[in-house]
Write a structure and sequence with these properties.
The complex is a heterodimer of chains A (249) and B (272). Chain A has 249 residues and is an alpha/beta fold. In chain A, 42% of the residues are buried. The radius of gyration of chain A is 18 Å and the shape is globular. Chain A has 7 helices and 10 strands. Chain B is mainly alpha-helical and 272 residues long. Chain B is built from 12 helices and no strands. The radius of gyration of chain B is 23 Å and the shape is globular. The mean pLDDT of chain B is 90. Classes of the chains: A alpha/beta (249), B mainly alpha (272). At the A-B interface, strand 6 and helix 2 of A face helix 8 and helix 9 of B.
């Protein structure tokens, strides 16, 4: 295992915050290649801010080092998958939404791109919807397209900010299963923010819990054999541990 | 009868109501004309449909001053298109610049707010004093009619682009001009189309008004034509020209603007 992401002494505060408290204060974190890291914590603990700093959307002090080079601005080697269904470009078809980022990142060969896009859409089971526009899709399908868009780019990191939080329970389970399968078969490192302990245990190969200020209070590998369900042996224990960590004073 | 019917039935219903209504209006018109209900001036105010129809044909065949109405339409369209093109292009350039420079944006927003309130026709005396009676004056008025509402809409559209599209764009490495052209522009299409509609409507009205107020001998347009028909008391020709003006409006609305809307914002689900 090699370290892909290294975060050292990360500080972040928003300039419009009157009392100047830091959202993240001195956060250190290392992520291994091909890890599926789930990040949990209360609202306002800095999970999303951490992800946005890694993505390069926020200015910060400290260091975020990806594969040896410092992160300063957004780049296609770190692709965000947002919570909102409206993250696809409505003026492009499903195919176009996956194809466009490839084209922009220097994939010139059109036939090759077509193959990559079709492959990515197949992975999220949307091959038949390639020519649809986003407004013709359900929320779950839109999130699948966003995942396909990220996969097609083969980024070093996929940063997922509660991508399933706005879905109904059934669709959510479905997408969790698909993402689990993809994370096991694809060569990718995923940072996944969630509020849902069960989701973290099912998906993560490592789970961390943040408290206010981005303090890491829980950080454990999750070595249970996948697929994991609430009836798996050891599920209850981990669930309790994580819950205690979240509600710890 | 259910009036909220949609689809084909709704279309047939609407169309038949409109046809019947039009026929009734024409029938009343013809009755007033034939019965000479308005006395001696009846023929001037309500020429019979037959004479309007004949005038319609005469407009194109004989025209006025040895020029068919086609020539007048052509001249008007030439000036209109030149003005629309310049106005829309300038609106894009200035609105684009105002996304780059904050000072420019403050000034340009202020200029747009003030100029937008100024009817083009009111500017006519000033423009004539400056430029003289040339066809460029009409182009100027069309530019004035279209540039402000278009700029206002483009700038509002850029402001209203959801942050998520911008971030999704920046995430794949777009910035500066590429972000402007590939995210901001398509994302604000709904605003741009509505700017086009307002701009066209104002330009069309402005053009006809300006041509009626002063006709340019070197480039006579539809406004001049209809005004000459009034001066010569060719009232049937006057009505026939009004019909031509309406037809041109319908062609632009349903032949150009509606298809643009249908193939962009409606197709993309950004507007119903």
């Amino acid at each position: 295992m090699s370290t892909i992401l290294e975060i050292k002494d990360l500080h972040k505060s928003f300039s419009d915050n009157p009392d100047g408290t830091e959202v993240l204060s001195s956060l250190d974190l290392e992520v291994e290649k091909n890890e599926f890291l789930c990040i949990l914590g209360h609202s306002g603990c800095g999970k999303t801010t951490l992800l946005r700093c890694i993505a390069g959307f926020e200015s910060f002090t400290g260091q975020v080092i990806l594969n040896g080079s410092a992160v300063t601005s957004p780049s296609p080697d770190r692709i965000m998958v947002f919570q909102t269904f409206e993250q696809l470009f409505p003026w492009k078809t499903v195919f176009g939404n996956v194809d466009f980022p490839l084209k922009q990142t220097g994939h010139k060969d059109k036939a090759e791109r077509k193959r990559v896009v079709e492959d990515a859409l197949k992975k999220v089971r949307l091959s038949e919807y390639a020519h649809y526009y986003p407004h013709q899709l359900s929320g779950g399908m839109k999130q699948r397209v966003a995942i396909a868009r990220a996969l097609a780019l083969k980024p070093k990191l996929i940063l997922m900010d509660e991508p399933f939080a706005a879905l109904d329970a059934m669709t959510r389970r479905e997408l969790q299963n698909e993402l689990l399968l993809l994370s096991q078969t694809e060569d990718c490192t995923i940072l996944f923010v969630t509020h849902n302990i069960q989701e973290a245990i099912i998906l993560g190969t490592r789970n961390i819990v943040l408290h206010k200020g981005g303090k890491i209070v829980y950080d454990k590998r999750n070595d249970m054999e996948k697929p994991i369900s609430p009836s798996s042996e050891g599920f209850g224990r981990i669930w309790q541990e994580m819950r205690d960590a979240i509600y710890m004073e | 009868m259910n009036r909220s019917q949609s689809g084909k039935n709704g279309f047939v219903y609407k169309l038949s109501v409109r046809i019947v209504f039009t026929l009734v209006v024409l029938g009343i018109w013809e009755y007033v004309a034939r019965a000479r209900l308005l006395g001696p001036r009846s023929e001037l105010i309500f020429p019979s449909l037959e004479s309007i129809g004949a005038a319609f044909v005469r407009n194109f065949v004989k025209g006025y001053a040895h020029l068919s109405l086609w020539n007048y339409i052509g001249n008007s369209m030439k000036l209109l298109l030149a003005g629309l093109f310049i106005g829309i292009a300038l609106a894009f350039v200035f609105s684009g610049l105002s996304t780059v420079s904050r000072t420019f944006s403050v000034i340009y927003n202020y200029v747009v707010s003030v100029c937008d309130l100024l009817p083009g026709v009111a500017l006519l005396p000033v423009v004539i004093v400056i430029f003289g009676v040339k066809s460029g004056v009409i182009v100027f008025l069309v530019v004035h009619a279209v540039i402000w509402p278009m700029s206002r809409n483009i700038m509002d559209g850029f402001m209203a682009v959801p942050m998520i599209y911008v971030e999704a764009g920046r995430n794949i490495g777009l910035k500066g001009a590429s972000l402007l052209f590939k995210v901001y522009l398509p994302a604000s299409t709904a605003y741009i189309v509505s700017g086009l509609k307002v701009g066209w409507a104002r330009a069309w009205r402005g053009l006809i008004s300006a041509e009626m107020i002063f006709g340019i001998a070197s480039c006579p347009g539809i406004g001049l034509f209809i005004n000459q028909m009034r001066t010569n008391m060719n009232n049937a020709e006057m009505y026939a020209t009004l019909i031509v003006i309406i037809i041109i409006g319908v062609i632009v609305q349903y032949g150009i603007l509606s298809p643009i809307e249908k193939n962009t914002v409606k197709k993309w689900g950004m507007s119903r």
